[in-house]
Design brief:
The complex is a heterodimer of chains A (80) and B (132). Chain A is an all-alpha fold and 80 residues long. Chain A is built from 4 helices and no strands. Chain A is 61% helix and 0% strand. With 132 residues, chain B is mainly α. The chains are: A mainly alpha (80), B mainly alpha (132).
């Protein structure tokens, strides 16, 4: 059985959100960037609904500041 | 994926067994639970269901769960379409599921995908949003 399943869906911490966002940005290049972008944005919106919005925004800024993938420029300026 | 022409939802007991971990209580661990992983996937599965259909979303999740090469390679290899490339819906879900692997572990991510592959009751979906 998988470990750690509980009925409470706890919000992700800022660090965890950063890891999820970073994981998507670091998707292997075999996956088209438009798919990465779409997955990134809908997940970001989803996280904003149930995690601390300030943590989500801080994590987004952290990841945006670290990425050099300009095909993801849309998400870097999306909230600017 | 079933290849004998049978409707794919006629034989999903394996997926239901895996998905049960999203719905039952257990000790809380430090890593993300199957339930929380399912909640994290909600955004992308909703996108796929809206852009295609609910059935396509669930079939895509089922294909990912059942593909051993997906789990052996941590989503490095994805199920292919007849044209030799993964479908866009597969890519979308795989991007998010892969990002959850380090936090939730493959078993919990697989359980979460199984949940979305099998669950059809909107009330149960809502229970992820509104904790019981």
């Amino acid at each position: 059985m998988p470990q750690g399943h509980e009925l409470v869906t706890r919000p992700l911490t800022r660090t965890e959100i950063s890891q999820v966002l970073r994981g998507m940005v670091d998707t292997p290049t075999e996956v088209p960037r438009n798919a990465v972008n779409a997955a990134f944005w809908c997940t970001l919106e989803n996280l904003t609904h149930w995690c601390n919005p300030d943590d989500v925004e801080a994590a987004r800024r952290d990841v945006a500041a670290q990425t050099v993938d300009y095909s993801l420029v849309a998400f870097r300026i999306g909230y600017a | 994926m079933l290849t004998d022409g049978t409707y794919w939802k006629d034989k999903i007991d394996d997926l239901r067994d895996l998905a049960s971990c999203v719905l039952v209580a257990s000790d809380t661990q430090e890593k993300l639970s199957a339930r929380t992983a399912a909640r994290c996937l909600m955004g992308v599965v909703s996108l796929v269901a809206r852009r295609w259909t609910m059935d396509e979303m669930q079939r895509t999740c089922a294909e990912l769960v059942r593909s051993e090469k997906v789990w052996e390679t941590s989503f490095g290899l994805l199920p292919l379409e007849p044209n030799g490339i993964p479908s866009e819906r597969t890519q979308l879900i795989a991007v998010v599921a892969r990002s959850l692997l380090p936090l939730a572990g493959p078993e919990n991510v697989r359980a979460a995908l199984s949940f979305w592959a099998t669950e059809t009751d909107p009330g149960v979906w809502t229970s992820l949003v509104d904790p019981q």
